[in-house]
Design goal:
The complex is a heterodimer of chains A (305) and B (313). Chain A has 305 residues and is mainly alpha-helical. In chain A, 70% of the residues lie in helices and 0% in strands. The radius of gyration of chain A is 24 Å and the shape is globular. Chain B has 313 residues and is an all-alpha fold. Chain B folds into two domains: 40 residues, no CATH class; 235 residues, MetI-like (MetI-like fold), CATH 1.10.3720.10. Chain B has 13 helices and no strands. The two termini of chain B are 37 Å apart. The chains are: A mainly alpha (305), B mainly alpha (313). The interface between A and B is large, with 127 and 117 residues.
Chain lengths: 305, 313
């Protein structure tokens, strides 16, 4: 997800079943040496984990230090004991970040909703319906996974320009709807659902749409939420597309807005770090709420920018 | 194919007839189900690809309507002979070379260690995985600040270790890309970490138990069970890493803007600059097509390798 777009195939069958928590391994022989080894492992990993946390902690610490202190340098920040929320107040009062939040929430939410509905519909057709051209659709979709959408930013810009959609939320939303991998994730999940329920519904005269809506989708909450979260994070984090299709500051998403911060804030390092943290915060909250879904979704689909 | 075989209902075997009827009945709803996604798929993946290829043969400009005059292979010739193009390609490759080994080796190491430790799983996931889902722009602001020349955290830590007046990381042509690579490793390792953790779940525990009974040390178990059993994950991780590296844009744009000079300019940076700063869409399209081809070749390769491994498994 780091950047966006996709370049892989779903691997695990219902996509979402591989569990994240590691197994508790019971080694029955040479227990002591094994236990000692595990302790060493824990210590080494702990050191790395702390190392990995330092940049974030440093940003947090700086964001809680007055601008006048952080402007002097790192040693001054380390020595400074007090905490202040002033940088956050500066950013939140400044107002621009609210526009960015709105743009990011709106574009990410709308794109996610449309992607999940459209991709699951296609996945359902590919999983359950026999039709002419099915093989062709399948191959085209598979090819679509390999298309690097980032490389298409120039022609997409021109297309949006031609229909006067530049500098609208739609310029950010529409190109990100075809999240091809989601079709396959949905298809694989549907393939794993038992067919008996649908068959009895069909005998009762239910059409495909009713089966999709009232049988398939309610059974698919895990995959729907996993795909929704991944799509949301992807759109939220996309820099390349909104950077070029939106130039109006009021329509900037969080990444584009943050990209302007460095230049315009100068030496107000604390404000810069506070805006970085405020921009990242919604995703940290999302992670804390949906940890398992996110981790399983990433592991199950191999999605990467 | 299209002619229904109803003329001789008695003769046709019931099985194929039923199948045919089902097929005919499903076709219309099936296409209705596929249509909404297909519309966006064609509009924003297929059509731009065609447009890009066509534009690459014209002197297309962003400031004028239409494709402009025909250029033949002129744009390609220009790109392939421009030193900036090859330098951008080289920097893209350089970035790939700098980031792939640490991202694979460290993620593998972290996953193996995490798999052996009972406590602190939440901490490890928080430390290693959370950066991966954060926006590149937030990451860049944090690291640019760490890299601040003279007064930044890195310079101060270097000072503690006796490095006097360290060169500014992002301002020195020879090490700017290293700075971007370190940030990228920090930012994206969580993805590989999670893939390796998932791969570790798939290794049957009996293998370890049997090996332990035979007196294999933990190291021997890792060497002869874990590493071979994770080879499929490793292939996946490496190829995804290469594809992602070829598309690198965010970190460079946000941290160095391609500089100092053009020391860190990468392929997508060159493409967007050609199109949006120099207004030369034709030339940008030619470069896009070239990058597109390289990425698709590796993506196809990845699919083929994945298929082959699946068949063997």
């Amino acid at each position: 997800m780091a950047t966006t777009g996709t370049s892989s195939t779903p691997r695990r069958t219902p996509g979402i079943s591989a569990a994240a928590p590691p197994p508790r391994r019971v080694t029955d022989s040479s227990k002591n040496s094994s236990r000692a080894f595990n302790v060493v492992c824990g210590v080494v990993l702990g050191v790395f984990a702390v190392l990995w946390l330092i940049p974030s902690l440093w940003a947090i610490k700086t964001s809680l230090t007055p601008n006048s202190v952080s402007a002097v340098g790192a040693e001054e920040i380390l020595r400074h004991g007090g905490l202040t929320l002033e940088p956050y107040a500066n950013i939140l009062r400044g107002g621009a970040i609210w526009d960015w939040y709105l743009a990011s929430f709106f574009t990410a939410a709308v794109t996610t909703a449309l992607t999940v509905v459209f991709a699951s519909m296609s996945g359902y057709a590919l999983s359950r319906l026999q039709f002419r051209g099915r093989g062709l659709v399948f191959v085209l979709m598979l090819a679509g996974i390999m298309i690097p959408s980032q490389v298409l930013v120039v022609p997409i810009f021109q297309m949006l320009d031609a229909v006067s959609l530049l500098n609208t939320y739609w310029a950010v939303i529409l190109p990100q709807i075809p999240y091809v991998i989601a079709v396959f994730v949905f298809k694989q999940f549907f393939d794993g659902l038992p067919k008996e329920l649908e068959e009895s519904a069909r005998i009762d005269g239910a059409g495909f749409w009713r089966i999709y809506r009232s049988i398939i989708m309610p059974l698919s909450k895990p995959v729907v939420s996993a795909m929704a979260i991944l799509a949301f994070v992807n759109v939220w984090n996309n820099l390349l597309l909104p950077l070029f299709v939106v130039s109006n500051p009021e329509l900037m998403t969080i990444p584009v807005g943050l990209a302007t911060v460095q230049g315009s804030f100068g030496q107000r390092y604390s404000d810069i770090q506070a805006s970085s943290i405020l921009g990242a915060l919604p995703l940290v909250i999302l992670f804390l709420l949906f940890q398992r879904r996110i981790v399983e979704g990433v592991a199950g689909t191999g999605l990467k920018g | 194919m299209s002619a229904p075989t109803i003329t001789q209902p008695g003769v046709a075997a019931s099985q194929p007839l039923r199948k045919d009827r089902m097929r005919a009945g499903d076709t219309k709803p099936a296409w209705l189900f596929i249509a909404p996604f297909a519309l966006f798929y064609v509009l924003f993946l297929i059509w731009p690809t065609i447009y890009m290829v066509v534009a690459s043969f014209f002197n297309t400009s962003i400031v004028q309507e239409g494709f402009g005059s025909f250029a033949g292979f002129g744009n390609y010739q220009e790109m392939l002979t421009r030193p900036e193009f090859w330098s951008a390609m080289w920097h893209t490759l350089q970035f790939t070379i700098y980031t792939t080994p640490p991202l694979v080796v460290l993620a593998f190491l972290f996953a193996i260690l995490a798999n052996r430790v009972r406590r602190g799983q939440a901490l490890f996931r928080l430390a290693f995985f959370v950066p991966f889902i954060l926006p590149s722009a937030a990451i860049a602001l944090i690291w640019n600040f760490i890299y601040t020349p003279a007064s930044g955290l890195l310079a101060v830590v270097q000072g503690w270790f006796g490095v006097e007046a360290p060169s500014p990381v992002l301002g020195t042509p020879s090490i700017a890309m290293v700075g971007i690579a370190v940030t990228t490793v920090w930012w994206t390792i969580g993805f590989n970490f999670i893939l390796y953790l998932a791969g570790l779940q798939d290794i049957p525990r009996e293998l370890y138990e049997a090996a332990a009974l035979d007196g294999a040390t933990p190291w021997q178990q890792i060497r002869w069970i874990t590493i071979p059993m994770l080879s499929r994950t490793t292939t996946l991780v490496v190829l995804l890493q290469i594809i992602a590296s070829l598309k690198i844009f965010d970190q460079v744009y946000l941290m160095t803007g391609g500089g100092p000079g053009i020391a860190t300019e990468v392929a997508l940076g060159l493409i967007t600059t050609s199109a949006f700063t120099d207004f030369r869409v034709g030339a940008a399209s030619a470069a896009s097509v070239l990058l597109f081809i390289v990425i698709v070749i590796i993506a196809v390769l990845r699919q083929l390798i994945d298929r082959a491994q699946e068949r063997r498994a």
